[in-house]
TrEMBL record:
Cofactor: Mn(2+)
Name listed for the protein in its UniProt record: UDP-2,3-diacylglucosamine hydrolase
Origin organism lineage: Bacteria, Pseudomonadati, Pseudomonadota, Gammaproteobacteria, Cellvibrionales
One Gene Ontology cellular component: cytoplasm
Residues annotated for Mn(2+) 1 binding in this entry: 8, 10, 41, 197
PANTHER family: UDP-2,3-DIACYLGLUCOSAMINE HYDROLASE, UDP-2,3-DIACYLGLUCOSAMINE HYDROLASE-RELATED
Gene behind the chain: lpxH
């Protein structure tokens, strides 16, 4: 039996190769795995569950076919698609996971996160994150017409790209002390997350115990997939 973990696909109409690759793997996995976990930034932007763009509709249809196959589907908010809601989950058969979430992965307590909350040195982003996760802020945003939300999303994306270009690389990576604190709080010796676009398996020593932080990669020129089975974990990369 197998579980798959992915994140940071940033699905967008301008990146059709990523969409094709995801749909290919989704079809392969349907009915042949225990579960698929999507740990945030699945979409480059999500303006609300009423989005009627062709890409959104095609992905919803494909996810529904996957969940109907008998494989479980789980999704977590990222910093790009934090407006994914209950309607999306009903249409796709997905379960929306809180960030963080702890699961039993074939006998080992495993912590799942998107990863953005671990980047505490990026104080500007952390302030925006607190605002964007506010129910009142989201409600105000979702009350606007779809066209206005799309325009705002484009504006915020451009601002984010400009700001990130001026930041030091280490500021946008996780804070090690925060990683250790969260793992202690959640009583986990394994953490799986995305967000930083720095795929790697980091061996750790947490209070004298062997631990591991697994970082999922973003889908750009490669599809990054963590394949988990009862006796093995493989962080795999496939050319798109």
């Amino acid at each position: 039996m197998t579980c798959y973990f992915i994140s940071d696909l940033h699905l967008d109409e301008t990146r059709p190769a990523v969409t094709r690759a995801f749909l290919h793997y989704l079809q392969q996995w349907a009915g042949h795995c225990d579960a698929l976990y999507i740990l945030g930034d699945f979409f480059e932007v999500w303006v609300g569950d009423d989005d009627d763009a062709p890409l959104a509709l095609a992905i919803i249809k494909a996810l529904k076919a996957f969940s109907d196959s008998g494989s479980a589907l789980y999704i977590m908010h990222g910093n790009r698609d934090f407006l994914l809601g209950e309607s999306f989950c009903q249409q796709t058969g997905a379960t929306l996971l809180p960030d963080p979430t702890v699961i039993d992965l074939y006998g080992q307590r495993t912590l799942l996160m998107h990863g953005d909350s671990l980047c505490t040195q990026d104080t500007e982003y952390m302030a925006f994150r607190q605002q964007a996760r506010s129910a009142s802020w989201q409600q105000q945003l979702l009350s606007q017409p779809l066209a206005a939300r799309r325009a705002l999303a484009t504006q915020l994306r451009e601002q984010s790209q400009s700001m990130n270009a001026l930041k030091a690389e280490d500021i946008m990576d996780v804070t090690p002390a925060e990683v250790e604190q969260v793992m202690r709080q959640q009583l986990c010796l394994r953490l799986i997350h995305g967000h930083t676009h720095r795929p790697h398996r980091h061996a750790m020593n947490l209070d004298g115990q062997k631990a591991e932080r697994i970082v999922l990669g973003d889908w750009c020129d490669k599809a990054w997939i963590l394949k988990a089975q009862a006796q093995s974990l493989e962080l795999q990369a496939f050319k798109l």
